[in-house]
Give the backbone structure.
Amino acid sequence: MYKLISNCNVFTDDILDVICKNRGVDKNKIMNPSVKDVIHYSNLKNIDKAVKLFKTITKRETSEVAIVVDSDPD
């Protein structure tokens, strides 16, 4: 049994419900995303800096690139 962290006194067995309600997120939207929920790459913060850096690195004779993705919706 999980309790919502808020002023209300709500208890539930579904931890995903608790997380979504605590963060003000619509659970149905996360579980059933649509194409219109996808952010266009040009709207990503600092994407221009990332592209510039990637182009600089790939011009080198030897280059290694690691891309770390934080794919959770929080």
Summary: Helices lie at 15-23, 27-31, 47-58. The chain has a mean pLDDT of 79. Residues 1 and 63 are 50 Å apart (CA to CA).
